[in-house]
Design goal:
The structure holds two protein chains of two kinds.
Chain A lengths: L2 H15 L2 E8 L2 E6 L4 H10 L4 E10 L4 E10 L4 E10 L16 H11 L30 H8 L19 H16 L4
Parallel strand pairs in A: 2-5
Antiparallel strand pairs in A: 1-2, 3-4, 4-5
Helix pairs in contact in A: 1-2
Chain B lengths: L3 E5 L11 E7 L2 E8 L7 H6 L6 H4 L9 H15 L5 H24 L2 H4 L2 H22 L8 E2 L2 E2 L7 H14 L1 H7 L4 H7 L7 H7 L4 H7 L5 H4 L20 H25 L22 E8 L4 E8 L7 E5 L3 H11 L5 H11 L3 H5 L1
Helix pairs in contact in B: 4-6, 4-13, 6-7, 7-13
Classes of the chains: A alpha+beta, B alpha+beta.
């Protein structure tokens, strides 16, 4: 079966189960659909029944200007090779999305990761609140756009104060004579002995 | 007997990389287990959002240490798709040579890793010698041994050096002649067979439940589910190769497939050297700025077939000079986290290291 008819088949499945806000063809093997948050579970279920049995990726994208998070689910059918991106926007304040573990059990750790990095709640996932990667994290979730790693690091690890006698810099080394000597030696090393 | 907690890793001959498996054992049977990642978390996804598209090339190979080239390829494919950039013909073939060498070296490392948990260190030394010779070839091509930063957006960094063909061919002949030796040392060695035959099963239902890809999936489903075949990228549609499969997935059959894949990669590299045209190897992604160029808005997911399965980058651009979001789909995510939690319990302690080794788990790509 060629990929064009596969893309049409995907179109039929998704249009018959939910409302598509925006369709975005990406390549012969990939297509993206933006759907409503409430339709996601329905669409994923019907795609799984039609053969899109593998959840390849689940994550989120932060859009602070719209005040939204965008969840993305990427599915793959190995027999009709088409990747489908299902994207849904959810509110940025108290973000929450029902877990898809009943449909794709493999989503468990992806959802835990999304909770850790974006702070999205996944009711239905038994462990989503447990910390996974970042031990004892004490700030806002780090992949949000308003998290500034530089500011965090400056606050958490204040710059060290050195005593006056920490480094004894030789004043002589700054003399022009010594600088010329160093340059000469560098040239000698670079050119292999020639002056 | 009282339940006891044991740690497998982060420092253990059977554990590859800095992750730890926590085992709760009763006698020598594992009752509960989970993986504790986080010892290698470097915040790549956040860092990539703060660096220019070009600068990220220096960062991405670090995502998976034993097999860095797949990262470069997935990143380059995704960015080129967003830019709608066509890569010169010769660059595709050079990329395939690099990727297949990377696959051989990762397979050799994983196959040699069998030596740790089974106490058969000769195998490991042999595999590492052969891998080291691949690193020599990498060094001649790209100037670096591990992190090549060779596959870049728009092609490859520079053309192949003079006379590398003979060197590659000599190496491939040498390796091919010794593949049977590897079988004798590893999967056909009676002392090892007792440990790996009919144990550490991966049934087809588990594959679909977890989302395992790569060798695990092909050995359980008996179907050639390989992204190089199913959705060819680069010029994999113009070379002839087979995808080794099996209908019985124990540790031995998965290792057997690894050796067969090495043979297939050798065949692919030979065809690449034959069919490779002359010409340019790199196009510039922009006509103006050399580094501070922008990428059009868009979302794209670019998968490649790594030695452990489907490895992909999910990239979002908002039209800026830096990526808006980069998500890494590590090939070992499903089996490494959920697989260890659900399916490692029930096996014996001494099988845990073999389980981790033969399922194909790379801890840096779980952590990122």
């Amino acid at each position: 079966m060629n990929s064009i008819s596969n893309l049409e088949a995907v179109d039929n499945i998704i249009n018959s189960t939910g409302k598509v806000i925006k369709k975005e063809p990406i390549s012969d093997f990939q297509v993206a659909y933006e759907v409503n948050k409430s339709d996601v579970h329905q669409i994923l279920t019907s795609l799984k029944l039609e053969g899109w049995k593998q959840l390849s990726y689940l994550s989120a994208v932060d859009w602070p200007e719209e005040n939204k998070f965008e969840l993305v689910y990427i599915l793959l059918n190995w027999d009709k090779p088409v990747y489908i991106q299902i994207r849904a926007k959810i509110d940025r304040e108290n973000p929450s999305m029902n877990s898809i573990i009943p449909i794709f059990p493999g989503a468990k750790y992806y959802e835990r990761e999304a909770h850790e990095f974006f702070g999205i709640a996944f009711p239905g996932n038994p462990d989503y609140k447990k910390q996974l990667i970042m031990e004892q994290w004490d700030d806002i979730p780090p992949l949000r756009k308003d998290f500034d790693p530089r500011a965090y690091s400056d606050r958490k690890y204040p710059s060290r104060e050195y005593p006056d006698n920490f480094s004894k810099k030789d004043k002589e080394n700054e003399s022009l004579e010594k600088q010329a000597k160093r340059r000469k030696r560098a040239r000698k090393l670079r050119t292999g002995g020639e002056e | 007997m009282k339940e006891m907690k044991l740690f497998l890793g982060p420092q253990h001959p059977g554990m590859h990389g800095n992750a730890s498996v926590h085992l709760f054992v009763d006698g020598d049977i594992i009752k509960r287990s989970y993986l504790l990642p986080g010892m290698l978390h470097r915040g790549f996804e956040k860092q990539m959002e703060r660096k220019l598209w070009v600068n990220n090339i220096a960062l991405i190979p670090r995502v998976c240490v034993p097999e860095p080239d797949i990262n470069e390829m997935a990143f380059a494919l995704a960015t080129e798709k967003l830019l709608k950039l066509d890569v010169p013909e010769r660059a595709h073939w050079i990329r395939m040579i690099m990727l297949e060498f990377a696959r051989i070296s990762a397979h050799l490392m994983a196959y040699g890793g069998l030596g740790g948990p089974t106490g058969n260190y000769t195998l490991m030394y042999h595999a590492h010698i052969d891998r080291n010779l691949i690193l020599d070839i990498f060094e001649k091509i790209s100037g670096a041994r591990i992190y090549h930063q060779y596959i870049v957006i728009g092609g490859v960094r520079k053309d192949l050096p003079e006379g590398i063909d003979e060197e590659i061919n000599a190496y491939l002949n040498d390796l091919e002649s010794r593949l049977n030796e590897y079988r004798d040392l590893g999967i056909d060695n009676p002392s090892v067979v007792k440990r790996i035959k009919d144990t550490i099963m991966l049934p087809e239902a588990v594959v679909w439940e977890l989302g395992v890809t790569g060798i695990g999936m092909r050995s359980a489903t008996n179907k050639p589910y390989d992204i190089r075949k199913v959705m060819p990228y680069a010029r994999y549609n113009q070379v002839e190769f087979e995808v080794p499969i099996s209908d019985y997935s124990d540790a031995r059959s998965r290792l057997d497939i690894k050796i067969k894949e090495v043979q297939q990669s050798i065949n692919i590299i030979r065809q690449c050297l034959d069919k490779m045209p002359e010409g340019e190897v790199r196009v510039k992604p922009s006509r103006g700025q050399s580094m501070r160029w922008t990428v059009p808005k868009g979302y794209v997911y670019a998968p490649v077939e790594s030695s452990r399965g489907e490895f992909g980058y999910y990239m979002v651009s908002n039209g800026g000079t830096t990526p808006w979001r980069v998500g890494v789909r590590g090939a070992s995510y499903p089996q490494g986290l959920l697989g260890i939690e659900k399916y490692l319990p029930g096996t014996r302690i001494d099988d845990a290291a073999l389980w981790v080794d033969t399922m194909g788990i790379c801890s840096p790509e779980i952590d990122r």
